[in-house]
Amino acid sequence: MNLRCKIAGGRVFDPAQGWQGEVRDLYLDGDRIVPQLPRVEKVIDARNQAVVPGGIDLRGQVATYGLNFLRLWGVCPPSQKLGEIYATLGYTHVHEPFLTPATAGYVHRELAALPVVDVSASLVINLRDLDLWLRDNGKIAEVAEALQFFLEKSRALNFRVVEPWVRHRQEVYAHRS
């Protein structure tokens, strides 16, 4: 069941709607802004407060292995503090763009440690791991099934296919030419 909520009397800033600090009420049905609701379960008093859209960092890289080395050296804040920093800067969502099948568990533990902000991750698939399948048109269904399997098991939002080292010939991949 979605919480039906009213944010009352806030100064609303939303460039997409052309609202530049107008005092108005916003209605939420779950996680969506909706037209006026006949009844609400909760009212948030936002008088003398700014109501603004939250930022989304699509390339947060907040859950990669390198951050632990930086934390050991005192260069990067701990996850708790990092989540608070994002929220202070107005972000509501942070997306980790580099989750692999091998690092999925670690990445999700790191993301779960970020407080306040919502999080997600993209599964990165190396094109070279799929290229033999992709050369055979009869195996396209198998490729799709494998990608769906990895996506579900890694609990990623989506996947990105990359081809690293494009400019560097490697003998192990000589079958491609």
Notes on the structure:
GO terms for molecular function: hydrolase activity, acting on carbon-nitrogen (but not peptide) bonds. It is built from five helices and nine strands, in the order E-E-E-E-E-E-H-H-E-H-E-H-H-E. The chain has two domains: 4-53; 56-176, no CATH class. Strand 7 (91-99), helix 3 (104-112) and strand 8 (118-126) form a beta-alpha-beta unit. The chain is extended and about 65 Å long. By secondary structure, the chain is of the alpha/beta class. Strands 1, 2, 3, 4 and 5 form a five-stranded mixed beta sheet that branches. The longest helix is centred in the last third of the chain and has 15 residues, at 140-154. It has helices at 66-72, 79-88, 104-112, 131-135, 140-154; strands at residues 4-14, 19-29, 32-34, 42-45, 50-51, 55-57, 91-99, 118-126, 158-162. Helices cover 26% and strands 32% of the residues.
Features:
177 residues; alpha/beta; 2 domains; five-stranded mixed beta sheet; four-stranded parallel beta sheet; 5 helices
| SSE run | EEEEEEHHEHEHHE
Structural class assignment: alpha/beta
Average pLDDT figure: 87
Number of domains: 2
- Percent strand: 25-35%
Helix content: 25-40%
Shape: extended
Total of helices: 5
Rg measurement, Å: 22 Å
Question: Got a strand count?
Answer: 9
> Alpha-carbon distance between the termini?
56 Å
- Ranges where pLDDT stays below 50 over 5 or more residues in a row are none
* Largest beta-sheet details: 5 strands, mixed
